[in-house]
Each structure stands twice: as C-alpha cells, then as structure tokens.
Specification:
Strand content: 25-35%
Number of helices: 2
Number of domains: 1
Length: about 100
C-alpha cells in the first residue's frame, strides 16, 4: 500500500531555462511526474517533465483556469496565444494555466 493522502506532497513547478514556448504573457515551468505510480520506487519507475505555461500579470480576480492541452504529436505551449484569444471573452478575470498533459511541449 502506498502513502496516505496526508503523506503525499504536491509536486513543485520548476522554472524552465530559455525562452517560453508559449510566448509573450506566459512563463514556462516543468512539472516532474512519475511515469508509473503503481509499483517500485521513483527511480525505477522513471519520471517525465510535463510542460506548464502560466499566464503572467497581476493577481487574477476570479482565480485560475486550467486547460489540459496537447494531443497526439502536437505540442500545446506554442498554441498558448491562440488559446488565450479564443477564451478571452469566455473567462474574464481568470489567469490561464496550460498543462501539456502528454509532455510534448
């Protein structure tokens, strides 16, 4: 049996070096996750750094809007500007966070 909920820690975002693939108005991070949490130690399971882009700016009035992005063979972060433009009228007051769930960037 694995650790209980009170023993688990949320992973931390690690700033990525270099320019952010999401472009102006976003800051890029990496979120390290286990490839397989069902068995073995973290070292034996392997880890993946999932790209995350967080919209910059002042404090969001309403909070954060998490968008799970990326698809087979498609990186999500380069589409950040297009996603922001399409959601602009839908989500005023929220700060956009893009999580590239497939890890392709």
């Amino acid at each position: 049996m694995g650790p209980s909920g009170s023993q688990l820690r949320a992973p931390e975002l690690e700033p990525l070096d270099g320019p952010c693939a999401a472009g102006t108005g976003f800051r890029c991070f990496g979120l390290r996750v286990d490839l397989d949490r069902s068995r073995g130690t973290a070292a034996s399971r392997g880890r993946l750094t999932v790209p995350v882009a967080v919209e910059t700016g002042g404090r969001p009035e309403k909070g954060y809007l998490l968008a799970l992005t990326g698809g087979p063979g498609q990186a999500a972060l380069p589409l950040a500007q297009r996603i922001r433009a399409r959601l602009g009228s839908v989500d005023p007051g929220y700060r956009l966070v893009l999580l590239d769930q497939r890890g392709t960037g």
